[in-house]
Amino acid sequence: MASSEDNVSGIKTGASLLASGGTLTSEPCHKCSGVQVRLGDKITCINCGNEVNTGGTQTKAERDKAAPVRRSAVLTSVASLIEEKIALLASEIKVENDISMQRQKVDLLDRYLGILERTKNLIE
Questions:
Q1: CA–CA separation, 36 vs 30, rounded Å?
Q2: In what order do the strands lie in the sheet with 36-39?
Q3: How would you classify residue 123: left for phi > 0, otherwise alpha for psi between -120 and 50, otherwise beta?
Q4: Which ranges constitute the DSSP H helices of the chain?
Q5: How many domains are contained in the chain?
Q6: What is the pLDDT of residues 34-53, one digit of tens each?
Q7: For residues 50 and 42, is the Cβ–Cβ distance under 8 A?
Q8: How far is Cα 52 from Cα 108, in angstroms, rounded to an integer?
Q9: Which residue, of 14, 24, 26, 40, has the fewest CB within 10 Å?
Q10: 19 lies in which domain range?
């Protein structure tokens, strides 16, 4: 089972790939069924880190033509995912009694809010 740190690391990796122009794929990872991000000729699973080299099956013209539409859809999807995570984390903080855990969750919440703000700025 993945630890909380692994999950945060995966989210950071995914956000970084998306911010660099990556796109979410419709196919789940064949190893763990996790979310995958395509950047260039490489598909990376955010959950387990599995990487697959696609060998450039799409031409540059095809990628350039579809990029703005995919990017907007992906960013909207990422914003929605982050909003869900923020809501979940806020409800967890509300019932958390351990100050140390509250601090960790607030730090994560702050990072999510930063990612959400940057994502929404890219959408506009």
A1: 10
A2: 23-24, 36-39, 42-45, 51-53
A3: alpha
A4: 4-19, 60-95, 99-123
A5: 1
A6: 888 888 888 888 888 888 88
A7: no
A8: 29
A9: 26
A10: 4-123
